[in-house]
Amino acid sequence: MKRADYISWDEYFMGIAMLSAKRSKDPNTGVGACIVDCDNRILSLGYNGMPFGCSDDEYPWAREGAALDTKYLYVCHAELNAILNYNGGSLRGARVYVTLFPCNECTKAIIQKGISEVIYLSDKYAGTDSTVASKRMLTSAGVKYRKYDPTGKHIELEL
Predict the structure, then answer these.
(1) Which string of b and e fits 31-52 if b means at least 16 CB within 10 Å?
(2) Is 156 a catalytic residue?
(3) pLDDT digits (tens, 9 = 90+) for 44-78
(4) Which of 11, 58, 79, 117 is catalytic?
């Protein structure tokens, strides 16, 4: 008889996105992404961070101040990192699990790569122009999006 307490695919992939977010050096918002195919195979992972070759110690992590003194012009978002990290074939029909609803720039990349569904944990910027634009584009392009509903399961990892 098989175990009855195993986790669902949604729990598994969102858990991996959440674990990926722990790699982020951002002191305010760590974001993770996990892209999977229609057969529930993981294709790629990403988290928000500086581009390769740009030291986490040399670039700013501030949220406020002059544009060049904040993180926003430098950080590569989790979804884009996951897309750029993928070295396989097409992402058409894939799903992306993200810990934060994608911004408008990441949404463009998601649509262009043919990802068919976005499953997100948090939508804390729902009222911003970026998120409103993202939802408008996803709807127009026929990309489904849905909120992940946490199940309350607790998994402890000792690393």
Answers:
(1) bbbbbbeeeeeebbbbbbbbee
(2) no
(3) 999 999 999 999 999 999 999 999 999 999 999 99
(4) 79
